[in-house]
Amino acid sequence: MSRTRRVAVSLILTAIGIALLIWQVRKVGIADIQRGFTEVGWGFLVILALSLARFVLRSAAWMTVADERTSLVTVTAATIGGDAIGNVTPFSLAVSEPSKALYLRDELPVGRSLAALTAENVFYSLSVALFIVLGTGAMLTRVGLPQDVREYGLISLGLMIAVLAVGLWVVWRNPPAVSAILRRLSWLRLGGLVDRVRRFEETTYAFVRQSPGRLAVVIACQTTFHALSVLESYWTLWLLTGTWSLLDAFILDTFNRIVAVVARPVPLKAGVDEVSTAMVATAVGLTPAIGVTLALIRKARILVWAALGMLLMMRKGLGRQKWGNGAMGQ
């Protein structure tokens, strides 16, 4: 799909998402949502702290794969900045991941950084698929779920099992995934980067498989990342309701991960997250207003980090001219 067409599709999806958001907020009532934000209050700082820890964990996993000792603060800044670009633009991973590698261009060769980041993304995708499989299984065992929610759960379960199978195949077969994608991005004028990435692809996955100690670190980072995500949902639900259901937090967080995968082309998952979370909240015995408020608090957290990330990127000088002048070929 061309860049222009992708932007057009994203704009259409965003408009639909905003319409869904307005409809859902009006349906549950703005007063209940405002009350929920008041209940969260200063607890939002804990939410930000938990999400920062998750950025640090993904960054640590990235550098573990790269086998580099680059400052974790700098790498975390690159992760926050790249995710910001991916969240607020229609290009998602196609721009966010190269942006992270570009951010570190003074500390690490871009080709090596991007290949290591891609390898880390493979392990992250596998962990997400496993997380969704476990969460969906928990959701399906919960009594009283509506039939439509069960059907969505079964579909998600099947899809994630397929993703796990594909991911394991990628790790085993080492296909030239990144270089193939970069070859399609001819408008970025990547020069000799594609060949360098391809050469690094030939060794990255095999090298990781031959380093069980570093692989264990990556797995630990991914596992803790997901645990903190559930803890964030649990903390937010406790602030909103005073209840202590870790299972409900796990189910809601799982569904949020499904939405993140399905609605990736929609910037900020506008509308889609709110509608789906309201539906699942109702299914587990909460009110739709709680679900919508939970989704909006997540969105507020994303916006805070997106604002910081864009500032970091601008401070680093990663403007449009950097892409056009062959910075990625460095």
Number of strands: 0
- Specify the number of helices: 14
- Helical fraction: over 70%
Estimate nothing, just give the exact number of structural domains. 1
Class derived from helix and strand content: mainly alpha
Describe the largest sheet: none
- Described by its quaternary structure, the protein is single chain
Which band does the percent of strand residues land in? under 5%
Provide the residue-averaged pLDDT: 78
Shape descriptor reads globular
Radius of gyration: 20 Å
Description:
This protein is an all-alpha fold. The chain has one domain. Helices cover 80% and strands 0% of the residues. It is built from 14 helices and no strands. Helix 6 crosses helix 11. The protein is globular.
Q: What is the topological layout?
A:
Elements: H1 3-28, H2 30-40, H3 44-66, H4 72-88, H5 93-103, H6 110-141, H7 147-173, H8 177-184, H9 193-209, H10 212-241, H11 246-262, H12 272-283, H13 288-316, H14 320-324
Helix pairs in contact: 1-12, 2-13, 3-4, 3-6, 3-10, 4-5, 4-13, 5-6, 6-7, 6-9, 6-10, 6-11, 8-9, 10-11, 11-12, 12-13
Q: Which terms summarize this structure?
A:
single chain; 330 residues; mainly alpha; 80% helix
Concise account of the structure shown:
The protein has 330 residues and is mostly helical. It is 80% helix and 0% strand. It is built from 14 helices and no strands.
